[in-house]
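DM from R.C. (forwarded with permission)

"hey, sorry to bug you on a friday — could you get me a structure for this? deadline for the figure draft is monday and I only need the backbone to look sensible"
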Amino acid sequence: MEARNITQTEEQVLILDSVAQFLRRDVEPYAHDLEARDEYPREIADKMADLGLFGATISPEYGGLGLSALTFAKITEMVSSVWMSVSGIFSSHLIMAAVVERYGTDEMKQAYLPRFASGELRGGIALTEPDCGTDLQGIRTRAKRDGGDYVITGSKMWITNSVEGQILLVLVKTDMEAVPPHRGMSLLLVDKARGYKAKKLKKVGYRGIDTGELQFDDVRVPAENLVGTEEGRGLQQILNGLELGRINVAARGVGLADVCLRESLAYAQTRQTFGKPICRHQTIQIKLADMATRVEAARLLVERAANAYDSGQRCDLEAGMAKLFATEAAVENSMEAMRIHGAYGYSKEYNIERYYRDAPLLAIGEGTNELQRIIIARQLVERNPV
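My reply, with the result:
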C-alpha cells in the first residue's frame, strides 16, 4: 500500500506551533527535576488540557480538535523528544476516547466524550494483569451481571493514569467459560469514584507519570457503562484502539531517537580528543550516520501507518512495523548517545541517561516487539496468498 500525503491545514500548523512553544516554556525547564523526583507533572497536565491535547483526536462534535493520526503522531514525537512521560498522560487517555467514540452508544458518547475532550475527565485503558501481559485472552478480572449493574473483581497492573486519573476503560471477562476466551471479554468504563484502588508503581524509567497497580473488590458499575450494546466484543474493540496506540508509541520512539541524535551531534562537534572534535573521528561519524538513518526511516514508517489509519484502512501491519522499528531505533540510539557522551552520558546531570532508561519501555509497551514481529508476519501471509 502506498502512503498518501496529507497536507496540514493552517489550524494544524498553528497547533504544532503552540505545542512547540508550550514545550519550550512549560516542560523543558522542569522535566529534569520532576523526573528525578518521580513527581507527577500536574501543572503540565493542566496546561495540556488548556491546549486541547486531551481532545486531540476526538471529533469536534464532542468538543475535540479532530486531528488526524498523522498530526497526533507529530505532536507525540515533539513531546517525547522533550520528556517522554508527558506524552503518556494524553495518549492512553485518547485510546480510551477512540474506543468510546467508535463503539460506544450515543448516550455514552454524549455523556463522556465532551468531558474527555476538555480534560475534565482524564483516564486510560486497564488491560494487563499481574500474570497476564501480552496474552490478553488470559485475563482473570471478572465482571458479573447483577441486576442493573456489573460487579467487578480482580486486579490490573502497569496502568497509566490510574492514580491521578478519574476513569478507566477496563477489559474484563463477562463469561469465564467462553470458548475461545475472547468471546467472553467485554469493556467497561469505570469511574474511580466507584471504588477501585490504585497504587503507584516505581519504575526505572518513564518516571513522573503515574503507572499503577489496581484492585477491584466488588466494584459496582452501571450496565450502561458497557461499551457497545452486547457483551463479548471487548477484545476486538480494544485491539482496534491499540492501532492508534501503536502509532503513538512508534512516534514516541521517533522523538526519543531524534533527540538522542541531536544531542549527540551537538556534543560531537564540541568535545575534542586528540586535537580535534570527535565528530571528525570515523568511528563517531559511523555512529551518527546510523543514528540519523534510523530516525528518518522510523519517521517514514510512522507516517505510513498514520496515513493508513486516517484513510480508515486496517493498519495492524503498518502500525506493527512502525512500532517495531521506531522503538528499536530509540533503544539503539540511546545506547549510542551514551557511548558518544562517555562519562557525561552516564551522569545524572545530563539527559542522556534518562533517554537510556526510557527507551526500553517502548519495546515492551503496547505489545512487545516480539509480538509485533508475529503480527507483521501473519499479516504478510494473509495479504499475500499464494
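R.C.: lifesaver. The beta strands are 123-126, 142-146, 149-160, 167-173, 185-191, 197-200, 211-222, 272-273, 276-277.
me: no worries. The chain has three domains: 10-118, 123-232, 236-383.
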